[in-house]
Specification:
Elements (H helix, E strand, L loop, with lengths): L6 H20 L6 H30 L7 H4 L2 H14 L3 E4 L3 E9 L2 E5 L7 H12 L3 E5 L7 H12 L5 E3 L4 H8 L5 E5 L2 H13 L4 E4 L5 E4 L5 H13 L11 E5 L3 H16 L15 H12 L4 E4 L15 E4 L16 E7 L2 H9 L6 E5 L3 H10 L4 E4 L13 E2 L5 E2 L1 E2 L1 H7 L1 E9 L23 H10 L4 H21 L3
Helix pairs in contact: 1-7, 2-4, 2-5, 2-6, 4-5, 5-14, 9-10, 15-16
Keywords: NAD, Oxidoreductase
Family: Belongs to the aldehyde dehydrogenase family.
Protein name: Aldehyde dehydrogenase
Length: about 500
């Protein structure tokens, strides 16, 4: 449906809403740790009371049964983690010092914008939202318009459970997103593709707004000659066919040692047939591609792959139904679009290699991926691969599991994004780490070693070489560190006079 307002009118409207939220933030409401706990508890309550409704709408949007909603419900783990640790996370941290104490106080940034994708609409909205709440921020949430059932439900439930003065949901498509980005935010959290990510970055740059980018890319899998093939294939198949491959960290292509190529393909084909039937239609949980346009894109990738389709293929695609069967392609052309673009669907290219260096060179020619997976029983090969290949995250003899725990960060690098979240890392991402020096005024600590210079008089000549020797001298490192700390403390009045 076309917007009833122009982008300019929407920009002004959202600006007024944002101004009201800034007034609420300025009131200090969100600085209360108890308020944050209450909001997080309400998020958990929202899941407890509506999990079936959430799962059913996800199934309506993405196909499959209500089990498709399980990854969405899992976002509650992030909320629970924040609740359990918020007292510790929000505490001012004493770093060092006695006469003057060096401290770090995490403080909220303000009003943040969270733009969620269509593939995991609840999880990828609620997990960053939980981090934003824990850090004491207010948030405007923008769900994807490609979720016609889930987006309205998000817009309905969020204001029912969270403080409506502090959290708002804006539905819509490009005009609404454009209008939101025309305004100044204190932080923007975007999950999606790199093309739109560049648009978000350009808009944020106009206001010098910090941004977290969770993108994607071609996440490779390396299977060497020592890999245990039964475990390897089951784990890759699970992660590749889950959600029809529409996951940013799904295996995009597999590089397998030539001695294992035939076994790998045979096992993967068998797993696809056992799980989804000969044509992929016999498993209700498989789901569908988000829309006809994306199904047509996948059809073109398969048709132009330049390799041998050993299972599935474009003949079984039903574009109007959003159905693309699990497809395995043997030795695609390295110049084909399927090896240039992120697939984001249930299509798996398999490429043989003869030695590890050749495989690593193939991966290094691509942009830095969000995930990198290595299947090997050789610790030497694993270490060589992890050292040679950069990625946002990585898995050794596993796929996808690096994004689940709250105790380790999730984030990209280069074209796959930047910034990180989950657990304490998300709290830090949405916090300003404020440096504070608390200096004693007790008797004996009220002055400085050197008196302030009088007007027109310079410090004695011996001071400069003394300072240089203290800073860079031949003393032991531990002694130099001690002297440097003392020097910085004593010279602070002079820096203040100099305006630094």
């Amino acid at each position: 449906m076309a917007p009833t307002q122009s982008v300019e009118e929407l920009t002004e409207d959202y600006g007024k809403q944002l101004a009201a939220m800034r007034q609420t933030f300025a009131s200090g409401r969100s600085r209360s740790v108890e308020w944050r706990k209450q909001q997080l508890s309400q998020l958990l309550k929202m899941y407890e009371e509506n999990h079936e409704l959430i799962s059913n709408t996800i199934a309506a949007d993405m196909g499959g049964t209500k089990m498709r909603g399980m990854p969405e419900i899992a976002a509650a783990q992030g909320v629970d983690e924040a609740l359990a640790n918020i007292d510790c996370w929000t505490r001012e941290r004493w770093v060092e010092g006695w006469i003057h104490r060096l401290c770090v106080r995490p403080e909220p940034k303000g009003v943040v914008l969270i733009i969620a994708p269509w593939n995991v609409p609840w999880q990828l909205l609620v997990r960053p939202l939980a981090s934003a709440i824990a850090a004491g921020n207010l948030a405007v949430l923008k769900p994807s318009e490609l979720n016609p059932q889930s987006s309205p439900l998000i817009a309905k439930l969020i204001p029912q459970y969270l403080d409506p003065d502090c959290f708002r949901v804006i539905e819509g498509a490009v005009p609404e997103t454009t209008a939101l980005l025309n305004n100044r935010w204190d932080h923007i959290f975007y999950t999606g593709n790199a093309a739109v990510g560049r648009v978000v970055m350009a808009a944020a740059a106009k206001h010098l707004t910090p941004v977290t980018m969770e993108l994607g890319g071609k996440s490779p899998v390396l299977v060497d000659e020592t890999a245990k093939m039964d475990v390897t294939c089951r784990r890759i198949a699970f992660a590749k066919w889950m959600l029809c491959g529409q996951i940013c960290v799904a295996p995009d292509y597999v590089l397998v040692h030539r001695s294992k190529e035939a076994e790998f393909i045979e096992r993967m084909v068998k797993l696809a047939k056992d799980g989804y039937g000969e044509d992929g239609t016999q498993q209700a949980d498989f789901g569908r591609i988000v829309n006809e346009r994306h199904a047509e894109r996948l059809e073109k990738l398969i048709k132009t792959c330049g390799g041998e389709v050993v299972h599935g293929g474009f003949e079984g695609i039903q574009k109007s139904e959003g159905f693309v069967p699990p497809t395995i392609i043997k030795q695609p052309s390295m110049d084909a679009p399927i090896m240039k673009e992120e697939i984001f669907g249930p299509v798996l290219p398999v490429i043989p290699y003869d030695n590890l260096e050749d495989a690593l060179e193939i991966i290094k020619k691509q942009e830095i991926p969000l995930a990198f997976y290595v299947f090997s029983e050789s610790s030497r090969n694993v270490e060589k691969a992890l050292t040679a290949i950069q990625s946002g995250g990585a898995g050794v003899n596993t796929v996808f599991e690096q994004v689940v725990p709250e105790s380790i960060p999730f984030g990209g690098l280069g074209e796959s994004g930047f910034g990180m979240y989950h657990g304490k890392y998300g709290f830090d991402e949405f916090s300003h780490q404020r440096a504070i020096v608390r200096k004693s005024t007790l008797p004996g600590f009220q002055g400085t070693l050197f008196p302030l210079p009088k007007a027109g008089e310079a410090l004695p000549e011996f001071v400069y070489p003394l300072v240089v020797r203290l800073q860079l001298g031949i003393f032991p490192q531990s002694m130099k560190s001690c002297w440097r700390g003392l020097f910085h403390m004593l010279m602070s009045p002079f820096r203040t006079l100099a305006g630094r």
